[in-house]
Design brief:
By secondary structure, the protein is mainly α. It folds into two domains: 213 residues, HUPs (Rossmann fold, 3-Layer(aba) Sandwich); 91 residues, Tyrosyl-Transfer RNA Synthetase (Orthogonal Bundle). The strands form two sheets. Strands 1-2-3 form a three-stranded parallel beta sheet. The longest helix is centred in the last third of the chain and has 30 residues. The chain starts with 12 loop residues before the first strand and ends with a helix. Bound molecules: adenosine-5'-tetraphosphate (AQP). The site of adenosine-5'-tetraphosphate (AQP) has 19 residues, from helix 1.
Length: 342
Amino acid sequence: MSESQPNAAFTPRVFSGIQPSGNLHLGNYLGALKRFADSQTAGIQSIFCMVDMHAITVWQDPEDLRRQTRELTAGFIASGVDPEKSILFNQSQVAEHAQLAWIFNCVARMGWMQRMTQWKDKAGKNQQNASLGLLAYPALMAADILVYHATHVPVGEDQKQHLELTRDIAIKFNNDFGVDFFPITEPVIEGTATRVMSLRDGTKKMSKSDPSDMSRINLTDDADAIALKIRKARTDPEPLPETVEGLEERPEARNLVNIYAALADLSVEQVIAEHGGQQFGTFKPALADLAVAKLAPISTEMKRLTADPAQIDTVLRRGSERAREIAAPILEKTYEIVGMVR
Ligand code: AQP
């Protein structure tokens, strides 16, 4: 992790979140969960959050939201995030996120929000009917991060623009009030799978909301479903190239090679050295075997953990208490800077 100059005064701290909006998939695993688990060994305090308040910016059935929050928590733990080493909790149990978000709503400008690709994609042509929360989403995300003075945020590439906005909010707040209070957060977008693509279309990212279940591998899929989805993944008719450059104009082939590399902890070069020249009829079964070996234990562990919702709720409650110990003094100080009488 690089330490940027403006953050020299801040203790390095990692924050990241995932929405409990269902269909947790391979992109979420490789772009986020696996990297969270790996980063825990770096000795830096890590805070990971089920961002349930972000999830409700689009409609969520209440029963589904509860189930999905517990399932996501199980997904974190089954992927190797240790709730003793890291702080693991759901956003709505730490009210400081929403409280700081209100301040940031008053710092951020409408134009900044309206430029966000996610807003444009999700609200589409029907902006008048989208929730106000969907527009304000990036201010809440900035609060999620800055209420902990987090210096580093590991995310997939799709979140880069929101991270830039978080930096803009921190800079404007610091300038407006003449302080050096919020760190200028560094996005950490590293590895071979920062953008896992759909198995049906190599130009679209793998996504929870894709109507086709065949487009993604869900972390709840069993071995047969994983193997079937990889076998049916769209590809071109050529064998795998002998060089990495040969993947450039071949999004589907590149996606499968990237997935292989990320699952096996290899570089793309190493995968091509081993599998270059193979037909997909040979490469896909090798990828399916690897994916099943890595993902089936996660799916099994998630099932085991979700069978005991009370235990998961205990993890979330304890995590929220630990999170609040960090967030509450930072919010208090923010109120003081803004001029709120306490
Ligand atoms: N396809 C992806 N490749 C790599 N990383 C990804 N992430 C999401 N999709 C990919 C990363 O997963 C984390 C959790 O993100 P989130 O819950 O905010 O995800 P999301 O954007 O709601 O997930 P989707 O699937 O992209 O949902 P929809 O369909 O609603 O747009 C983040 O770190 C994200 O970068």
